Amino acid sequence: MRKYSIFAVAREAMRYHAGWEKAWRSPEPKRKYKVIVIGAGGHGLATAYYLGKVHGIKDVAIIEKGWLGGGNTGRNTTIIRSNYLQDPSAGIFDKALQLYEGLSQDLNYNIMFSPRGLLMLAQSEHEMRGYKRTVYANQLQGIETKWIGREEVKSLVPILNIDGPRYPVLGALYQERGGTARHDAVAWGLARACSNMGMDIIQKCEVTGIRTENGEVRGIDTTKGAIDCEKLSIVTAGHAGTVANMAGFRLPLESVALQAWVSEPVKPCIDVVVMANLVHCYISQSDKGELVLGGGIDHPNNYSQRGSWYTIEETVRSLVETYPIISRLKMLRQWGGIVDITGDHSPILSKTPVKNIFVNCGWGTGGFKAIPGSGWAMAELIAKGEPGPLAKGFGLDRFTEGRFVDESVAAGVAH
Ligand SMILES: Cc1cc2nc3c(=O)[nH]c(=O)nc-3n(C[C@H](O)[C@H](O)[C@H](O)COP(=O)(O)OP(=O)(O)OC[C@H]3O[C@@H](n4cnc5c(N)ncnc54)[C@H](O)[C@@H]3O)c2cc1C
Which residues, if any, are the signal sequence (predicted)? Predict the structure, then answer.
């Protein structure tokens, strides 16, 4: 694989960009791999990447029913932060943030990481107490966040209506290291690195069955034929439950649609990311000038990647009351993704009842920010057969032992 650099860009500019090679190969599947990862979203690709990079396991296939990054990884609003409440969450989300900080250099691929700062608005006394508690917890975890008053909030976000109309802004939980990254670039950069290590990314190949023998995995059936493996990782987000059913076990997950919107481009008007969890809306501005907007989940369980009118209406209402100047903005695009939510709003990185099948899911509405940390932890789990320190708290056994990692407040609106 040829290195991307300013010299490569200059060289290609001189020859009409005819010399760029494909970023990843698209091979036919082999009959057998040491490890198969189902799902070429960010978490599946990062799992494969760190399996190769950290553990030297490169006989890996990543099987994707659509196109890589076409699931939630390419549909999210790209918010990155690590200001969660519980220690296991702080561990994995901050590891992810640290890896994000150097990921462009590591992958030799510009993921457009933009640590522009992130605010979570407090709009009730209850929320204010909750966020102050998070600041104290973060201090103990060694994660830098702070509580800021409403005047500072207004100076950081001049377009914000801090007085209402429904709820005034009382202050905010602020993480200066938080921000965004280009979601497609994260998937593409990881895919390029995996392919370069000799791993096979098989797109347009749906897994239709999982073969087991004596309680141990043997392989998978796909629309491109049967493939054997020694270890299998299910990383299919909103479809984790349906894929786990193929192996004969159930997961404690609910799948629901989450929507996002992108407006027409406008001049720079907001240079931080802002989440308003009480009224359910959040906002950032892309490099092109579009406002990237989101809200809460659609409540009925479903697998439609669209979302309902009710949620659109609620989110628009919240956005307009919070940022009145955007009331006449036109929307360019709207879409939905299927997110996988657990009872404690924390992910699952775990062994399963079937030997050598591992599962990584339950990231719900907030897993983009976790991609490198999750991949790191999952690769360790697969390579060693036991969870390392990052994955330890997120086993399936927590649901039977009542040892929840409750992030229902930090997950908030959700990201
Ligand atoms: C609208 C929206 C906004 C969001 N905003 C944010 C945000 O701002 N910040 C944040 O941190 N998170 C956010 N998220 C959540 C985040 O996008 C997800 O948690 C994360 O992308 C999950 O990644 P993944 O790799 O697990 O799943 P996915 O990217 O969904 O990948 C799973 C893949 O598995 C494939 N698959 C499924 N079934 C099969 C099968 N049978 N065979 C083969 N392949 C299969 C799918 O096609 C898919 O490509 C948002 C999500 C949505 C929908």
Answer: none
